[in-house]
Amino acid sequence: MRLKRQMAPKFWRIETKTRALTTSPSAGPHPAFSSIPLRIIIRDILEVAESASEAKTILNAGKAQVDGVIRKDPGFPVGLMDVVHMPDMQKYYRVLPSRKGLVVKEMTKDYDKKMLKIKNKTILKGNKIQLNFHDGTNLISGKTDYKPNDVVVVKIPSREIVSHASLETGASLLITGGKNVGKTAKLKKIERISGSRADELIVETEDGDHKTQTKFVFVLGKEKPLISLGE
Asked: Higher confidence at residue 88 or residue 26?
């Protein structure tokens, strides 16, 4: 499907004067306008291809991976913390938030790992827990100490959990929404709001203390990030 250029988010970085239509995001793990279609990453952001047809040729040849899985759909939605790999170039990229929207940063380490924020969890039979993540995926775990808004680090593509960080005082955070989006911060205080499921947080950034909400933060680690976020 095609999308009118003026409806596309600015962070897609599409040339405004030469393209009236662009790739529409497919249904997938991330919301349509909180993600970037894979073909746009290949053509407009990484500039690996000069045209939509050339980008499609790259995809059809299986030369693009997201989280270690070959993706051939031009509209496949690539979102927060996803890892894009271009095998022919031996390049890896992670999708991160910024003041201008999502950005694609090159990585030279930890490209075989991905951070997943726990949105909620479901109790299954046999004392199993289904963890439901920010990217629309889920995992079954026998451990019960994971909580919503915690983060796990998984290997890709196996999705084996290798580490875990909780939303707690002193935690290192990445702000993913609001006026301080894209900044790293330290969690100073959690303020419980009566009758609300969204706690308010006091966080410290390089330019002072700010208030934000749990939905706008992504735990990176207990004191420092568990993995590299890119160059």
From this structure: 88
